[in-house]
Specification:
GO terms for molecular function: transmembrane transporter activity. It is a multi-pass membrane protein. Its main location: membrane. The chain has about 400 residues and is mainly alpha-helical. It contains 15 helices and no strands. The two termini are about 30 Å apart.
């Protein structure tokens, strides 16, 4: 039953494979990019600037990306975005092989910004493509399978592989990434999408965007989920931004150890992706999301109060489990509810609210460490973003108990 979609649906099989390959590249980059940043500087604010640059496009381009997705061939958008990422990884490889002495961290930030821009377009197109190739009643199963595969390749295989590659040469991960994104582009190119249903000629850019905004405003539950996701992601990306320094300085891990730490998180993601559809059906959507929020509070307390690689690995496992449960429930709900002709635009509004705050979270975490370090010391300062994250997640849990309802 679980593999029926992959066996019987060619388009889903191709999209599934492309996502797995693309996320393998993302998993390698998740370790390699911040590790390269730490070779250029140990300044928490500058390292945060690279993470901020990669997430800033979600604030700048998420809304127009929705209009582009509804107007254009979603398959071609994904192919072109993957090819842009091939070029950017090749440029990073060139930067490593011919090191830039002055301003290297800013060159890396520029590459991260362009990479993030391509990611905005690709991810929005990919998420809006799935309901066109999978029956609506199978969306939870399809999303769970896709995200489990992405966790396996992106966080289970990619990070430790990156650690091994970095140990040989910091250049190797970027060459590997370029190859994986090229293969992803080729797989997406082979997908045959059915013609779009209805919609006719779309209005001009601004009226088309307003149509998506108006739909979102008329659905208070979807709007609340988007705002909550924005806060969750800001806290999450803040923790991930300082995690590379936390792993090096608090936990004493090497690049291989850091990769293994992220892999432990992937185990939770794989389990969450496979179990989330059943958990959501058993508990109901609201209760499942409340469980996810409880897990987020627990995770941040574990990272904020302890300094153990084992506890950190368990925390990342739990965080990925909760994140997968949240995503499977909310994305499937959205994909079923939003009309196909509006899906790209409404999805982009949702992601603008849900992902747009990530640059603030990344820069805020780096700034918090920098401000607290002179008073509390480096170790305590690196714990601080996680303690703040626990407080914010607890506030979201209280809000959800009071306001989150499904029709």
């Amino acid at each position: 039953m679980a593999g029926a979609l992959i066996r019987e649906n060619r388009n889903y099989r191709l999209l599934f494979s492309a996502s797995a390959v693309s996320n393998l590249g993302d998993g390698i980059g998740m370790v390699a990019l911040p590790w390269l940043a730490t070779l250029l500087t140990q300044d928490a604010v500058l390292i945060a600037a690279v993470a901020t640059a990669q997430r800033l496009p979600w604030t700048l381009f998420a809304l127009p990306a929705g209009v582009w997705t509804d107007r254009a061939d979603r398959r071609l958008l994904m192919v072109r975005a993957d090819l842009v990422r091939v070029v950017l990884m090749a440029l990073t490889l060139g930067m490593v092989l011919a090191p830039v002495q002055a301003g290297g961290i800013w060159a890396l930030a520029l590459i991260a910004f362009l990479f993030g821009t391509a990611e905005v377009i690709r991810d929005n197109a990919a998420q809006t493509m799935l309901p066109s190739i999978v029956p609506h009643e199978a969306l939870e199963r399809a999303n769970g399978q896709m995200w489990s595969a992405e966790q396996v390749t992106g966080q289970f295989i990619g990070p430790p592989l990156a650690g091994v590659l970095i140990a040989s040469s910091i250049a190797l991960p970027f060459g590997a990434d370029a190859s994986f994104y090229a293969l992803s582009a080729a797989l997406v190119w082979l997908i045959a999408l059915p013609p779009k249903r209805g919609g006719g000629e779309m209005a001009r850019f601004w009226p088309a965007l307003v149509e998506g905004l108006s739909w979102m405003r008329a659905k208070p539950t979807v709007l609340r989920l988007a705002v909550m996701l924005g806060i969750i992601n800001a806290v999450f990306i803040g923790g991930m931004t300082v995690l590379v320094l936390y792993a090096q300085e608090v936990l004493g891990l090497s690049s291989a150890g850091y990769g293994i730490l992220l892999t432990l998180g992937a185990c939770g993601g794989v389990l969450g992706g496979l179990a989330a559809p059943r958990v959501a059906a058993w508990l109901g959507m609201r209760a499942a999301l409340l469980v996810a929020l409880v897990l987020f509070v627990t995770v941040h307390l574990m990272l904020g109060l302890f300094a153990s690689p084992v506890v950190a690995g368990l925390a990342l496992f739990t965080e990925a489990l909760g994140g997968m449960l949240w995503n499977v429930v909310t994305v499937s709900y959205r994909q079923r509810l939003i009309p196909d002709t509006l899906l790209g635009r409404v999805n982009s509004v949702y992601r603008f609210l849900g992902w747009g705050a990530m640059p603030l979270g990344a820069m805020g975490a780096g700034a918090l460490v920098s401000v607290l370090e002179p008073t509390l010391g480096r170790t305590a300062a690196l714990h601080a973003p996680y303690l703040l994250g626990a407080s914010v997640s607890a506030g979201l849990l209280v809000y959800a108990l009071a306001r989150l309802r499904f029709d």
